[in-house]
Design goal:
With 155 residues, this protein is mainly α. The protein has one domain (25-154). The chain has helices at residues 2-19, 36-39, 44-53, 55-58, 73-87, 98-113, 120-125, 133-154. This is Haem-binding domain-containing protein. Residues 13-147 form the Haem-binding domain. InterPro entries: Haem-bd.
């Protein structure tokens, strides 16, 4: 029995080492002119809030930590990023029309107020991503202001 357990442990370790050579493509593209921060008036406090709570999964500029490079964790993280960018990619803000931008801002604050964003598992590993009531209020006020500006500029 010890021999079988030993072979199993060695096989698992070999598979783990081999898995390290199969990493997903990293989500690191330079910030271009389509990014929200370059397209809209985003105060520094909002940039910090969005960077801490949203941009790792909802932009092309993920900040990778050491454990993001360890398979199979890297695969799970990559899946979250791909899914997040399918729903919202703030790096593509400039490519959206006004109505999509306004809808996105409404959806953004709705998800945050319902506690669905940022994801709980993300907050566990990134404590700065947890938004308190005051930060949610700041986000709400900013999204409303930006929506009003978008409507005014569209007329």
């Amino acid at each position: 029995m010890k021999k079988v357990l030993r072979i199993f442990i060695i096989a698992v370790l070999v598979l783990f080492v081999v898995a390290q050579f199969f990493q997903p493509e990293k989500n690191r593209i330079e910030m271009d002119d389509d990014h929200l921060f370059k397209q809209a008036d985003v105060p520094e406090n909002m940039q910090t809030l969005l960077t801490n709570a949203c941009l790792d999964c909802h932009s092309n500029q993920t900040n990778y930590l050491w454990y993001h490079y360890v398979s199979p964790v890297s695969w799970v993280i990559n899946n979250h990023i791909v899914e997040g960018k399918e729903h919202l990619n703030l790096s593509e803000w400039g490519q959206m029309d006004v109505f999509d931008k306004i809808g996105t801002l409404d959806e953004m604050i709705e998800e945050v107020e319902k506690g669905e964003m940022p994801l709980k598992e993300y907050v566990l590993l990134h404590p700065k991503a947890k938004l308190d009531e005051a930060e949610v209020e700041v986000l709400r006020n900013w999204t409303e202001k930006l929506s009003e500006e978008l409507i005014a500029n569209a007329e």
